[in-house]
Amino acid sequence: MPDQKKSILLVEDANFFARITESEIERAGNYDVAIAKTYAQAKAILDERKVKPFLALVDLTLPDAPDGEVVDLTIAAGLPTIVFSGRFDEATRHSILKKGIVDYVLKDSPASLGYLAELVHRVDRNLSTKVLIVDDSSQALETLTMRLQLYCLQVLTARSGEEALEVLKKSPDIKLLIIDHLLPGVTGFETMTQVRRTHSFNTLAIIGVSGTTSPELTAKFLKSGANDFLNKACTPEELMLRVSQNLNQLDRIAELTDMAHHDPMTGLYNRRHLYNVVDKLHKKQVNAGKEIRFAMIDIDRFKQINDKFGHETGDNLIISVAHRIADLLPQNGVAIRIGGDEFCVALPDIDELTAKQFLSELRSSMPVTDPGNDEHTFAPTISVGLSSGTEETLTGALRVADRCLYRAKKSGRNRIVTSSSATFDRV
Known about the structure:
By secondary structure, the protein is of the alpha/beta class.
């Protein structure tokens, strides 16, 4: 089921800009744009509350509000506000930024529309993104916190390196660390070195900050594990852009990692995930003296279905079985498509009886028609092999499950064979 669209309020009196901005924003993500052409229309939308926007994009010059009054309206409504306007001078920029907007974007080129769309998507992701600021200066903490909260980030703070390490331990989902090098006790450089022992560049970005700048200081920050460096006197725009660049890089790495570990056809994990991630889970279970069972699942006579009904029907069947596995998967279970019509399920901390109940329900709920063609009626079945859960290595566990699967196939298919029994679960 697709995620529900998030609403954005766009206040723009020029039809051309309203249309192209709406198109760019909706292309950037799962957004629904509500357009107002006047201050009065924007106020009516907010008062009626039929639309609940999470963000406002506003022009400064409107027929009934020529001096940026709409910014006060949207900010008073509690909406993060981005100004998108053709007006620009230093006095206007300064006064608008003082109101607490997210950013000020000029309508000066097609690239501005692309930047605006990326900014909207970034703010959306920021709503669930945690940032930790580490500084012993109350004023610095207050200033940075205010700026980052305007950017819709969840801000945590610490006043020392020791406190920062404790906060990171309690909140491992923190994505960005902004840290001063002059800290009491453990320095910022020493803190970053410790952080990098447990948090890689792929999961946590670090921006070093300082009231002074020098090439040597920047180099020391980078050598200690920082991704970037900022002077505390930087403008709000530079801070926001650097924060965005670092968070965008993390998001891109996460997207590529996700793609590398998932099967594109079914959405289940793939062999890479099995041998890179589940292998570590198996070792963790073994070291803790806990069980982890593996089920190897194969669609019976799949080649015959492919030959009779075609590869499209075969693909639909694989997808249908994958979805059924995902729907029934016990908590903490991991579902993997090995390849072709073969699947593997890792079941940590699940006893044999519970594992067999899950597998039996899966076996008895196979589709009887091609999800893509109702005229293709068939009765597919699956065979399953289940390991004991006590094997010392992942390779050993998969070998046991494979042998049980082979026994299930040889003894008539459509059954579950476990490593602990000589009897088979039949229809």
